[in-house]
Design goal:
Blueprint: E1 3-8, H1 15-27, E2 30-36, H2 47-58, E3 64-69, H3 73-79, E4 84-89, H4 92-108, E5 113-118, H5 128-136, H6 150-160
Parallel strand pairs: 1-2, 1-4, 2-3, 4-5
This protein binds adenosine-5'-diphosphate.
Adenosine-5'-diphosphate is lined by residues 8-10, 14, 16-17, 20, 87-88, 90, 94, 119, 123, 126-128.
């Protein structure tokens, strides 16, 4: 059984993330979509909200499981018996950070491979930050996030009034 972990903040999940998840699910028997519990990032949504959004957005996908984790990614990968980490790449600006993380994770666990999936050009501009900004300003986010996620984003507009 080939298992992968797709870790991220998912603050919130976007259709760009869903595209990566669906493509990863074609390559692996099981993909854990795992929210990183990283207090340093000051997310807009709580862990419970982000897990709730992921579950609502990804329900019905048999090869996908939603989870969250504390601590080192390689320890989580080991715990769920995965052999690969999946990350998405958009512009060159993603590269430096992703390169450093992939090499660091390989140093910590040489058995874990990081696999990069290139964004679909349709989503190359899309980020969670952009979605939050548009939602706060009352713009239309229907095409940017999975439909069940829209109701969580309404709270951002209410907070900013
Ligand atoms: P993190 O804080 O770990 O970067 P994100 O939720 O922002 O978490 O992103 C998780 C992963 O998904 C990262 O590898 C990121 O590059 C990728 N990603 C985010 N948005 C897109 C997109 N529109 N297309 C492809 N990959 C994306």
């Amino acid at each position: 059984m080939k298992i992968a972990v797709y870790p991220g903040s998912f603050d919130p999940i976007t259709v760009g993330h869903v595209d990566i998840i669906d493509r990863a699910a074609k390559m692996f028997d099981l993909v854990y979509v795992a929210v990183i519990r990283n207090p340093a990032k000051a997310p807009a949504f709580s862990i419970d909200d982000r897990v709730g959004m992921l579950k609502a957005a990804l329900s019905g996908r048999k090869k996908v499981k939603v989870d969250s984790f504390d601590g080192l990614l390689v320890d989580y990968v080991d715990k769920v018996k995965a052999t690969a980490i999946v990350r998405g790449l958009r512009a060159v600006s993603d590269f430096d950070y992703e390169f450093q993380m992939a090499l660091t994770n390989r140093k910590m666990d040489p058995n874990v491979e990081t696999i990069f999936l290139m964004t679909d050009y349709k989503y190359s501009y899309l980020s969670s930050s952009l979605v939050k900004e548009i939602a706060r300003l009352g713009g239309e986010i229907a095409k940017l996030v999975p439909a069940p996620v829209k109701k969580w984003l309404k709270s951002l507009k209410e907070e900013s009034i």
